Amino acid sequence: MNFDEIFVTIDKNLATIDSIREEILQQIRQIVRIAAETIKAVHREEWQIAEKNILEMKTSLQNTRNRVNNHEILVRRNYIEIAEQEYAEATLLYHLLHDKQLKDPSNLDIPDLSWLLGLADVAGELRRHCLDAIRKGDIPRAENVLDLMEEIYRQLFSLDYPKGLTGNLREKTDTIRKLLQATRGEVSMATHISRLNQNLEKILDQHEGKR
User: Fold this and answer.
1) Closest Cα partner for 135 from 193, 50, 200, 180?
2) pLDDT band of 176, cuts 50, 70, 90
3) How far apart are CA 95 and CA 104, in angstroms?
4) What sign does the dihedral 152-115-47-41 (CA atoms) show?
5) Which of 106, 94, 62, 97 is nearest to 80 (CA)?
6) Would you call 207 exposed, middle or buried from its count of C-beta atoms within 10 A (0-12, 13-18, 19+)?
7) Tens digit of each residue's pLDDT (9 = 90 or more) over 11-58
8) Are 87 and 61 in contact (CB under 8 A)?
9) Secondary-structure class of domain 111-211 per CATH
């Protein structure tokens, strides 16, 4: 039994995989960065920039996944999962707000769980979009976005499976519930103020008309 030869071979194999791992981690960080830029572009309604970024992420994600799949140890470590979630979040947010469509996991070419976890993160970005609409005085848009948050929460809450299967999906769903409670209150208050302002304007117009 030759320990030295066996361990030399294993050491070389691990060194090679570690080098590939570092390259993959760099690619994943790049995907995460582009996802963040895409989300900012969506909030600014810079749709062309968002579209370009989504295509870039999709290509990079596929290339990274292919490299990971060539090495069993990297597959078992789930190195690609974070990138898939970030890609899902940015892409789903874009399509929900720009196209008014919900793309399914097969369309994004990612696993169901990555899609679900990405969708859960979308809710936080929708809250941000909702508050932006309130600041701009666009109450109908704020109400529509709130309805979308409600639907995401309702659907995610319906998935009652063990943590060992769905990861931290339940924790993310609980976070959405808290965000919803706060957002409902803010939209309700904004709606109330908007109606008061409209009524006040009518009264002032009537008063001016009597002069």
Assistant:
1) 193
2) very high
3) 11
4) positive
5) 62
6) exposed
7) 898 898 889 889 888 999 999 999 999 999 999 999 999 999 999 999
8) yes
9) mainly alpha
